[in-house]
Write a structure and sequence with these properties.
By secondary structure, this protein is of the alpha/beta class. 48% of the residues lie in helices and 16% in strands. It folds into two domains: 4-30 and 275-365, no CATH class; 32-259, Alpha-Beta Complex (Spore Coat Polysaccharide Biosynthesis Protein SpsA, Chain A). It has a seven-stranded mixed β-sheet, sandwiched between helices. A three-stranded mixed β-sheet has the order 5-10-7. It comes from Inquilinus ginsengisoli.
């Protein structure tokens, strides 16, 4: 028999979770209505795209950055570490499709630390030609006004960097749809709620836009070559310069291409352990965001109808949040019937994040130490 006080606490957690979902729906609508900062000038831009393999949708992702309606000079730099990387052929396709664009390919195997992406970026940085530097992951997809919007935000007074919120774009299959749901119903509203409360200071690999002087002042990409949470560390370094990191109200697309449960699990576990390493208190507090599985736990332990009612309320709230998000950002409809499974999977990832420190990143095994540093680990990561 569960003591009454314990059962009350078990019911309180999903109740708070339902209120959190409601707060997220309100925050998303408000944040999406924020007015952008128009660009007063159009500085020259170097856009850095580190590549690794011909991942699904890569050509379309990169092409969206080439097809920008931007009046200033733009240099697009792509980087790989091996001349045999299939991404090289994708860049060649881009050169044929966009012959008037300045496309530079850097092939350089040098390693500057344990983070392969930042090593790649450090090599690419040697060919930067312009005043503004934008780092963006290869799985992002943008609209033609992306550079105009980012340039405008970077001109806000006191701003040293710009990062972008992102929504999920499912490539194909149930696993990619579950991945997109995680972004749109957990990650995105969580960040926006944190921004609204003044608790979040995000910086994402989706976009990190910096003036060249700021990029050099924080040590360039090489200074973060041992960090798993390299984007977060770069944002912290910009703020340490006394400058802000702007987060505009629009979102860009993150292509979710997971083709199996194993790929989805490895990606989300790496993500969860990264967050745990940089914000352990916030990660622990995020337990209240798992209202549906917490209500099921309470029901299994004797919570009865109140627990089942909270479970139903949590699912309805998550669907309402999803609808709000779709309307605010003009996104296509999600498969709402996957929401209960999505919530259960998110809770399983949350619990497992505390059962080890290993991460699997692009087939390489690493161990994450408490300060967020990546250490090469030959052993299979803890799952």
């Amino acid at each position: 028999m569960i003591p009454r006080l314990v059962m009350s606490l078990l019911l309180l957690l999903p109740l708070l979770g339902c209120l959190y979902i409601l707060a997220g729906a309100v925050a998303v609508g408000r944040y999406a209505r924020r007015r952008p900062h128009p660009a007063a000038a159009f500085p020259s831009i170097t856009l850095l795209k580190p590549l690794h393999g011909a991942e699904p949708g890569l050509y379309e992702n990169l092409a969206s950055f080439c097809a920008q309606d931007y009046p200033g000079p733009v240099q697009l730099v792509f980087g790989v570490t091996d001349v045999r990387d299939p991404a090289v052929l994708v860049v060649e396709r881009l050169r044929h499709a966009f012959p008037l664009k300045e496309l530079t390919l850097v092939i350089d195997p040098r390693r500057h630390g344990s983070n392969p992406k930042m090593s790649n970026l450090a090599n690419m940085a040697e060919v930067i030609r312009h005043d503004t530097v934008i780092l963006s992951d290869s799985d992002m997809r943008v609209g033609p006004d992306y550079l105009r919007r980012v340039a405008g935000e970077l001109q806000r007074p006191g701003t040293g960097g710009v990062t972008c919120l992102y929504h999920g774009v499912a490539a194909a299959g149930v696993w990619s749809r579950l991945s997109a749901l995680a972004i749109d119903t957990h990650f995105l509203p969580g960040v926006v709620t944190g921004l609204g409360c003044g608790l979040a200071q995000p910086c994402f690999g989706s976009t990190i836009a910096l003036g060249r002087g700021t990029f050099d002042a924080i040590g360039g990409a090489e200074a973060f070559a041992d960090q798993l949470a390299d984007d977060h560390a770069m944002g912290a370094a910009v703020r340490a310069q006394g400058l802000g990191v702007a987060v505009p109200s629009f979102t860009i697309g993150h292509l979710c291409s997971e083709a199996s449960l194993g790929a989805l699990w490895a990606h989300e576990l790496r993500w969860a352990r990264t967050i745990k390493s940089i914000d352990p208190a916030g990660h622990a507090g995020s337990i209240i965001t798992h209202a549906f599985p917490l209500a099921l736990v309470a029901a299994a332990l004797g919570g009865g109808l109140p627990a089942l009612a909270l479970a139903g309320l949590a699912v309805v709230g998550r669907v309402a949040l999803c609808l709000r998000l779709e309307r605010a950002y003009g996104l296509p409809r999600h498969p709402y019937w996957l929401i209960p499974a999505r919530d259960l999977l998110s809770f399983a990832v949350f619990v497992t994040s505390y059962l080890g420190h290993g991460v699997n990143w692009r087939g390489h095994l690493y161990r994450l130490v408490p300060d967020g540093t990546l250490m090469t680990d030959r052993r299979p990561p803890s799952r």
